[in-house]
Design brief:
The protein is an all-alpha fold. The chain is built from 22 helices and no strands.
């Protein structure tokens, strides 16, 4: 029986009870298909083509990056399914019941940036639709910003409805988005004169060295793309019917969905180079180039559905829980969602999407250096230090084994700071630029390894109780 403290507990942070564990393998497959089949994924692959890769190089880079990030994602998902706890509660084990706010806020800030990016994309799509039906709107200076704020408000309404609305949206939209994406592919194929023409663009790298200098930071960007979900995946697996449901669903859904949809992005971007003479990495801009009003309207509706899904599922659930964790008594899931929305506006997403360089090498690689160290510490603590056993009551108590020193584990904080420092050092010191190019990997292994060394060099707390349930 949990006797929680008000400063660490509310209904949103409480362990998920069996009646609410209703997510099946299909729900996790559809979750990943819906989160993958959206504009920022398309732009991820399109940016590789615009940067000089051919279609084989781009597809390999995306697939490899997603297979790599699937490993920490599945490892961190285990505790959510076993104990029914969200990310900000799970991370109390390594960082302490109060220290958990540090990684939770790092994750939340990144999610706010993503929320702003997706809202900006959705606003652009609405603006493009408006121009199709009302061409003179292109001369209205405030029209784009009105569309942006309107889509942002729509996201806030969905947040207010709660997490079950996400499950409904994901299950409905996954097959719809697959059909629409394939329709876009065949439309581009027809315009470009066949698949051969679409994929005929050669690589722009004329030496192995030049390719590798672009490949490695791009691979880090691919890993960084889902580095956020690799941390807060317990927010979703806490609703799983069983351990196998979430593992099978995710192991199939993530690589298959990303490979399929990035191929569409790669192929259509390659087609744009054939049709217009240069690659167009923004699909909204590409749609307006075809001068087909009906096609453009249908495509923009598909973009809106996809963007709304991924924005709420990937960029609101986690930060809402994270902000709630700061003060569970005063901040609910809904309030946390509103905070996420307003911070997303403040991060000026229009600048993050100004070019593919800003998007991949600035935004994705940069924040991967913040989240890789957190993932390394979480995996090391749960599997190497605690052997998959947590004291559930202590996660909600100031008197438990996760109190450490006034609620903070200094060893985890030291490991985090060192890992982040090493990962981002190359951003500011050119001779060690390679550290930044591998930011997620550097942070993951430095922080994880240092954390194990520090914890085993001291008297590490041992879990004293374990929630009765499935052992996987």
């Amino acid at each position: 029986m949990i006797t929680p403290e008000g400063s660490l507990y509310n209904a949103d942070l409480a362990p998920t009870l069996p009646p609410r564990r209703t997510w099946s393998t299909y729900n996790y497959i559809s979750l990943w298909f819906s989160m993958s089949m959206e504009v920022s994924t398309y732009m991820l692959a399109a940016g590789l083509i615009a940067g000089g890769m051919n279609w084989k190089q781009a597809l390999f880079t995306v697939l490899l990056g997603n297979l790599i990030v699937l490993i920490p994602l599945l490892l961190n998902a285990h505790a959510g399914s076993k104990y029914g706890i969200p990310f900000p509660v799970f991370v109390r084990a390594p960082f302490g019941v109060r220290g958990a706010n540090i990684p939770a806020m790092l994750r939340a800030i990144v999610a706010c940036g993503w929320f702003g990016i997706q809202s900006w994309i959705g606003g652009q799509a609405i603006y493009a639709m408006l121009i199709v039906v009302w061409p003179s709107a292109s001369h209205v200076s405030w029209a784009l910003w009105a569309c942006f704020l309107g889509f942002w408000l729509l996201n806030m309404v969905v947040v207010w409805k709660g997490v079950e609305s996400i499950k409904f949206l994901e299950g409905f939209s996954a097959p719809f988005m697959l059909v629409m994406s394939l329709a876009l592919l065949f439309f581009a194929l027809h315009k470009a004169g066949g698949l051969g023409s679409m994929l005929s663009e050669p690589s722009q790298f004329h030496s192995t060295g030049a390719f590798l200098r672009f490949f490695f930071p791009s691979l880090t960007g691919m890993v960084g793309y889902w580095a956020t979900l690799a941390l807060n995946i317990p927010d979703f697996t806490r609703y799983s019917k069983s351990q196998s449901s979430q593992m099978v669903g995710q192991a199939f859904g993530l690589p298959v969905a990303m490979t399929l949809y990035t191929f569409i992005g790669i192929a259509v971007t390659s087609a744009s180079a054939v049709i217009f003479g240069h690659p167009i990495w923004n699909p909204i801009e590409l749609m307006t180039r075809f001068h087909q009003p009906v096609v453009a309207l249908i495509a923009m509706v598909a973009l809106l559905v996809a963007t709304l899904n991924v924005n709420v599922a990937a960029n609101v659930v986690s930060p809402s829980n994270d902000f709630s964790n700061l003060s569970p008594k005063w901040i609910s899931f809904r309030t946390g969602g509103l905070i996420t929305g307003f911070l997303g506006l403040a991060m000026m997403p229009w600048k993050l999407l100004a070019s593919f360089n800003n998007y991949i090498f600035g935004w994705l690689v940069g924040y991967s250096g913040l989240l890789g160290p957190v993932a390394g510490i979480m995996v090391a603590d749960y599997f190497l230090i605690r052997r998959r056993k947590l004291d559930l009551e202590s996660l909600y108590s100031r008197a438990g084994i996760y109190e450490y020193r006034k609620g903070v584990n200094p060893r985890a904080v030291v490991a985090l700071v060192v890992g982040v420092g090493c990962a981002l050092l190359g951003r500011f010191i050119p001779p060690v630029r390679w550290l930044y190019d591998y930011a997620w990997f550097v942070g993951f292994f430095v922080s994880g390894g240092l954390y194990v060394a520090l914890m085993r060099g001291a008297t590490a707390p041992s879990p004293i109780a374990e929630l009765a349930g499935e052992e996987a």
